[in-house]
Design goal:
Belongs to the glycosyl hydrolase 1 family. InterPro entries: GH, Glyco_hydro_1. By secondary structure, the chain is an alpha/beta fold. It has one domain (10-416): TIM Barrel (Alpha-Beta Barrel), CATH 3.20.20. 40% of the residues lie in helices and 14% in strands. It has helices spanning 17-20, 28-34, 50-64, 75-78, 87-102, 118-122, 131-146, 161-171, 190-200, 216-236, 258-268, 273-276, 316-325, 344-363, 406-416; strands at 10-14, 68-72, 106-112, 152-156, 241-247, 250-253, 281-285, 289-292, 332-336, 368-374, 393-395, 402-404. An 8-stranded parallel β-barrel has the order 1-2-3-4-5-7-9-10, surrounded by 5 helices. A two-stranded parallel ribbon has the order 6-8. Helix 14 links the parallel strand 9 and strand 10. The two termini are 17 Å apart.
Length: 420
């Protein structure tokens, strides 16, 4: 496949700390996994033990021809108690960053990927006005110590996820989310709320994790947190490129559904444009499409479905990049795109079809900096546990042995075409 792409284009894979590192004991997700009546199918425990095995995983990517690695720094490790910053954890992530550079991989760092410190969530989390300042303080501390090693920073992963969850929960309309969560009503049960309050040692209504229904006020806090973080990052490391990532569907529509589809897009993306106006790039995360009916609802997914219940539709990525480019004239990075499947031949085909869409976007003049596949490893898919396999590399849950799938080498072969 020839993309006629400039030399700066990079191909790599993504992970998030909580999903792969293991033993993230100070986070809100860990607390909610362990609690009685949890909505998580199982606890994360050691996850993929990437915290201890990152050198093996990074070197394997480099050997296969990958040029970049997107991963997250875990706030709950850096600041397990408010104001108590752990320098040894900064040293850990410094080692990860240096390992990327040593192996010729561009590190793309996400500062917040869904999980938050337990103490932050207990004090109101992403509905608390103080969160923007607290998040910026954490980002400032990280960048002060390792900023020069980070060329790209994504402040917040899928900033719009809470709004997407709120829409689905409020409408009670069955629909997929681009995240592995249960959308039943367990979180509203009286016993669940009591247990939640007991675990976080506060009023249960006050507990507001990032992955929950977000109010308009909470959405404003997320936008303010991003802008405050960007300012803090640029102050400590002016050369670092800063952006934010979004969960974006390819919204299509039946006759009579155009206006509703436009509203969905505006809520998911366009209303964030003022907050990202000074950013260097936008991160696009896409897995499928949604078709809006004339009554404004989402048509149930049809045709071939993935393990996650999404429609198999790799063409969605190119469509979304084109749609974003209508309003955003700066660079974009595909920070997530992938498929949950037990049949790796589907993954190989999905990647190639999705990258064909990226090629078309590039040829039309859109500045796509890179493509980061989700995910490097089979990992902990949030509420759904270890049941969904998105990884290019299989992980034995008992031994932690890694077994690269054919898709891993297939994507590596594509990446080798664009090595500098």
């Amino acid at each position: 496949m020839n993309m006629n792409q400039k030399e700066t284009f990079f191909i790599g894979a993504s992970t998030s700390a909580h999903q792969v590192e293991g033993n993230n004991i100070y986070s809100d997700c860990w607390a909610m996994e362990q609690m009685k009546g949890s909505v998580y199918n199982e606890p994360s425990l050691d996850a993929a033990d990437h915290y201890n095995r990152f050198e093996e995983d990074i070197s394997r990517m480099a050997e296969a021809g990958y040029q970049a690695y997107r991963f997250s720094i875990e706030w709950a490790r850096i600041e397990p108690r408010r104001g108590d910053f752990q320098f040894q954890e900064i040293e850990h992530y410094k080692n990860v960053l240096e390992c990327c550079h040593k192996n010729g991989l561009i590190p793309i760092v996400t500062m917040h990927h869904f999980s938050s410190p337990k103490w932050l969530t207990a004090m109101g989390g992403w509905e608390n006005d103080m969160t923007a300042e607290l998040f910026a303080g954490y980002c400032s501390y990280v960048m002060e110590h390792v900023g020069p090693l980070i060329p790209y920073v994504c402040t917040i992963n899928e900033a719009n996820m809470g709004i997407q969850i709120a829409k689905i929960m409020q409408s009670m309309e069955p629909s997929e989310l681009q995240i592995g969560i249960n959308t039943d009503q367990a979180q509203f049960m009286e016993s669940y709320m009591k247990n939640l309050g007991d675990v976080f040692e506060t009023e249960p209504q006050k507990v507001q994790p990032f992955i929950s229904m977000r109010t308009p006020h909470g959405d404003e806090i997320v936008r303010k947190a991003h802008m405050a973080a960007r300012k803090a990052i640029k102050k400590k490391s002016p050369e670092t490129k800063v952006g934010m990532t979004f969960s974006l569907f390819d919204y299509q529509y039946e006759e009579g559904g155009k206006a509703a589809a436009q509203r969905e897009w505006d809520e998911d993306f366009r209303h964030y444009l003022p907050a990202v106006a000074e950013d260097d790039f936008i991160g696009i995360q896409n897995y499928t499409r949604k078709i809006i009916t004339k009554d404004g609802k989402t048509r149930p997914a049809q045709g071939k479905l993935t393990m996650a219940g999404y429609e198999y539709y790799p063409q969605a990525l190119g469509h979304v990049i084109m749609r974003v480019a209508q309003d955003w004239k700066k660079p974009v990075i595909v920070t997530e795109n992938g498929i949950a499947t037990a049949d790796d031949t589907e993954r190989v085909a999905f990647i190639r079809e999705a990258l064909d869409g990226v090629k078309q976007c590039i040829e039309s003049g859109i500045n796509v900096l890179g493509y980061m596949h989700w995910s490097l490893l089979d990992n902990f898919e949030w509420n759904m546990g270890y049941t969904q396999t998105f990884g290019l590399i299989a992980v034995d849950r008992r031994t932690q042995k890694r077994t690269p799938k054919p898709s891993f080498s297939s994507l590596g072969e594509i990446a080798r075409q664009y090595k500098n």
